[in-house]
Amino acid sequence: MNPADIPNIEAMLQLWMLGMIRPGAAFIAAPVFGATSVPVQLRLVIALAVGVPAVAASGMALPPEGIVSVPGLLFVIGEVVIGLSIGFVLQMGLAAALIAGEAISNAMGLGFASMVDPLSGASSSAVGQFLSMLATALFLAADGHLLLIDIIVDSYSALPPGGAFPSFEAIGGLLQFGSLMFAAGLTIAMPVGFVLILVQIIMGVIGRSAPALNLFAVGIPATLLAGIVLLGIATPAMAEATARILSDALDAARMMAGL
Hints:
This protein is an all-alpha fold. It has one domain (3-113, 120-256). The chain has helices spanning 9-29, 40-58, 70-108, 126-141, 144-158, 168-209, 215-256; strands spanning 114-116, 123-125. It has a two-stranded antiparallel ribbon with strand order 1-2. A hairpin with a 6-residue loop joins β1 (114-116) and β2.
């Protein structure tokens, strides 16, 4: 065999490495893939499996000056920014459920009852954990993880590697979606939070009419009982609102990918 016919293994490995940057950055910030319980080796394997076909389809080429150069550095920065923005906007969608859980926990008096979130490794309230797991289940049930991979692959055609940076419209949409995340969290918490506020108002009126009544002995159990019952009743409505914000997060991810 003629040595000239042997492909340049080093250049091919460099292309694969560059192709892994965008999906790898997206998986770091995205829900489920970015969980602390997911091994780094598994993320690398999935990033390689996604990046290699995308590189072959997009016809990506190495910078003429090489990777260790100013154009190569800009190449890597552009890939990292695109990947992180795609994954981060999906993470914001799941954060709305966590915000709703924090609001409900404070209204129920369970703000002190916290536990470690298996996805992020941070401490959050018990109700926030419940809604976060609900949002994750809805995300997986709607094939959100597969849609994320599809968005990443399609982004190579919309934003070819080498000069891929989010547009001003996409950055403005990301900021607008960030404000929508807080509004969506309050919307998810509204069915339970509003009734809990009414319960607290009623307990305040009872406390004014019967000053000898110990509100700490009566009010806290009543609020907890009302919160648990309301969570069971309002879970379908909260699940529907959560699924809606996750759909909006996928649309925002497509916008960040230039689709």
